[in-house]
Every structure is written in structure tokens, then in C-alpha cells.
Amino acid sequence: MQDMLDLARFPLDRPDSAAYGVLVDTCRRDMAANGMFNLDGLVLPAGIERMVREIKPRSERMAHTHQRRHTVYFQDAVAGLPPDHGALKRFDTVHHTLCDDQLAGTLIHEIYEWAPLPAFLARVLERPRLFLMGDPLGRVNVMNYKPGETLNWHFDRSLFTTTLLIQAPEEGGEFEYRSNLRSDADPNYAGVADLLDGRDPGIRVNPLAAGTLNVFAGKNTLHRVSPVRGQRDRLVAVFSYYEQPHVMFSDQERIGFYGRTGSSS
């Protein structure tokens, strides 16, 4: 990884060093203050070039087009809410997904499986250990957003999400979010409805450049990727790490996310 990652600035491979401790502390402060942290420029230019070179042809040939109309909860109904409640407003999402079994031999796959990365994330998030996902399709995905496409407003199911931006679009494709909109104790449906109706001034944008690793606590933070504009696609990898080993998606989830349940080979 020495030639692909900026390990001088981000010493993920030196967990006993003072610089590693400083980086962990910085990321913890950012997570506490903003609900996320970025490692800007973690991937060096040579690594970015390799990722684009490896991913673009595979995406054009093999990616599954994921298109759905959904609520922010990815559920058609929520107990206690009438069907016409503003928090149940529906949005369109469309992007193109490469699954883990289609990424063998790529730098993205190597970075996902590089042991110092989940070890570092566990330190920052103060978890005993993080494991690679067991699911052969879901472990690491790459999403391709073409002009006009978007991942619309939603809450995540997992405690945190780890992404690596491979290629930024010419315009749009921005990561927009609203922190502290709800809590585990208070779903704040009225606040969700206000945001979806354009009445919340608290939406923020996290500008990301290619090669940036972003770790985001999205369970209670509403967020989206705004529509891509221009001629260049947005390419982003999503890494799935869990506190338990061997986590798998159900067949129903695989069909919903990927259009299949087993290997594409």
C-alpha cells in the first residue's frame, strides 16, 4: 500500500506511533463535532488513476442498475404515521452497482481487505474490533452515478458508513446531510417532514475530492447524494465492516440491492 496510500500523512500501518494516536484523536473529535470524519487525499494520485482505470470498464459491462422510489426509511409505512405524512414523502434513487464478486483484483478490493484499515476504524469508533462483512456480494460495492442520477434522502441502518470517493463529477453529486435530526429516543417525524419540504436551514454539504475516505454516522442523520451534473460520472466505493463476524444479507436484500442472490460468474 506504500505506493497507493499516503501513509506519511495517515500512518494507518503504524498503530504504535505517536502520529497514529494524534490521527485517532483528531478523527474522534471530528466525529463528535460533525458526525463524520474525512481522510482527505488518503489515496495517492497513482492509486486514484488505477482505481478509475479498473472500475470504469467493469461498471460499464457488469453494473446492476439500482432504481427505486422510496421513503427516507426505505419502508412504505411507519407505525403511527398516516400515509400522507410529510415524513413519508417518496423520492427517486438511481445508480449502478458493482458487487464484491465483480471487484476481484482491484485496488478497491485490496484497500477494503487491508487489515490496518478496519483496525484504525475500530480505534476511532472505540469498538473492540471490526470485521469484514461475510456477504459475497455486499462486502464492498462501487456505485456509479451518471448525469441526473442520485442517491436520495435516507437514514442508514448501520451505525456508521465508510466510503472512498474514486471520481468526483464535474458538478453536483455532493454529499448533503442534516446532523442530529432524530435520536434513538425521538424519531422527530415533524422535523423530518420539514426538511423534506425544504423548511430546514440546517442542511450542510461535505465537499469530497477523489481519494478521500469518509466515515459517517448516518443512522440518525438524514443525508443524500445530490443529482450529478456534467459529463463525468461519480464513482464511490462503500466498505462494509461490522462488529460481528460473518454478517450476511438475506436473499430478499440481495435482490433489492443487486438484482441477484448469487455469483455473477
Q: Based on helices, strands and strand pairing, what is the structural class?
A: alpha+beta
Total helices: the number is 6
Question: How is the CATH topology named?
Answer: Jelly Rolls
- Helical residue percent? 25-40%
Give the strand line-up of the largest sheet: 1-11-7-14-5-3-2
- Gap between N and C termini: 28 Å
Write the CATH homologous superfamily: q2cbj1_9rhob like domain
Number of strands: 15
- State the assembly state of the protein chains: single chain
Q: What is the name of the CATH architecture?
A: Sandwich
Total domain units: 1
Specify the biggest β-sheet.
Answer: 7 strands, antiparallel
Radius of gyration using CA atoms only: 18 Å
Form type? globular
Helix/strand order: HEHEEHHEEEEEEHEEEEEEH
Mean pLDDT: 95
Quickly name the level 1 CATH class.
Mainly Beta
Outline the secondary-structure elements.
Elements: H1 18-34, E1 36-39, H2 45-62, E2 64-70, E3 91-98, H3 107-113, H4 116-125, E4 131-132, E5 140-145, E6 151-154, E7 161-167, E8 171-172, E9 175-178, H5 189-196, E10 204-206, E11 213-216, E12 222-225, E13 228-229, E14 234-239, E15 241-242, H6 251-258
Helix pairs in contact: 1-4
Describe it:
- The chain has helices spanning 18-34, 45-62, 107-113, 116-125, 189-196, 251-258, and strands spanning 36-39, 64-70, 91-98, 131-132, 140-145, 151-154, 161-167, 171-172, 175-178, 204-206, 213-216, 222-225, 228-229, 234-239, 241-242.
- It has 265 residues and is of the alpha+beta class.
- It has a single domain, classed as Jelly Rolls.
- The strands form 4 sheets. Strands 1-11-7-14-5-3-2 form a 7-stranded antiparallel sheet, sandwiched between helices. A 4-stranded antiparallel sheet has the order 6-12-9-10, with no helix packed on it. Strands 4-15 form a two-stranded antiparallel sheet.
- The protein is globular and about 55 Å long.
- It starts with 17 loop residues before the first helix and ends in a 7-residue tail after the last helix.
- The relative contact order is 0.20.
